[in-house]
Structure formats: C-alpha cells, structure tokens
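#lab-general

N.A. 3:47 PM
ok so I finally got the sequence cleaned up, no stray characters, all 150 residues accounted for. can someone with queue access submit it? mine expired

B.Y. 3:52 PM
send it over

N.A. 3:53 PM
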Amino acid sequence: MPKILIVDDNEINREFLERVLTRAGYVTCCAADGPSGIAGAKQQRPDLILMDIALGEDMDGWEATQLIKGSPETAEIPVIACTAHALVRDREKSLDVGCVEHETKPIDIRRLLTKIEACLATKHWQPLAGGVASSGSSGKLSRKVGASRL
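B.Y. 4:20 PM
back already:
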C-alpha cells in the first residue's frame, strides 16, 4: 500500500485526512509542523506528501517543501500543497518550490484522491498545465494502516 505523509498543524485536518486516506487504502503518517515533516519524509520514506502551507511561525510549508526537495534523500517524493492560500500567485509559489499540485481548502476529497492516484501512477513528478501530476499536535509521527477503498 502506498504511504502518504500528512503535514498539517491542525489536528482536526490531520485526523480527517488520515480517516479518508485510510478508507481509500493508503498507509498514513503525520507531522504537525515543518521540521517534523522533513524528519518524517526522511524516516518514513512516504510515496507522497500532503503539505499544509500555513504551518506556524517557525517554518511554513513552502520552506519545508524546499528543504525536502533539496535533499537527495527526499527530492523524488512528490508533494501536494493543501492550503487555504487560494490565490493564483500562491499556486504558482507552490509549484515553484517543488510541489506537483496545489489543492485549496476546504479540500474536495474526490479531486484530491484523483490527484494522489495520478501522482502515484507515475515515476516522474511533473505538474501538467491543467494541474494534475503526470510523467515527465506534537510534531511526532503517527502511523495508520488502511485496508479498504471508498
């Protein structure tokens, strides 16, 4: 089962995404801030990362993504920004720092699952013009295993 790291400082958002992704058949692990998200990417080796952008004062999701993409250990992990930042320039910045997609909150689960499946179905994580990827709490990590599909 593919593993997805959820990086979000809001516990309710993390738990919601964990439940949805587990029901969809994914393994999940979580981090509550940028530094623990970076550590989780290195330790857990997820297949994909869902990154909140507004993670607090110390480090935002864009900086965390840049550090993840800048490390040889984690550079190939696709990152989808999941954020309330909905302006065109926010989406452009997400793509500029290395995200393969920018999903705005409130999250449309069907659309997010489609984007996740598209990312995981390819070996190269490049955003398409239309946006979907194609070829070309404590900060501690938690882990859940899902077995069923929506």
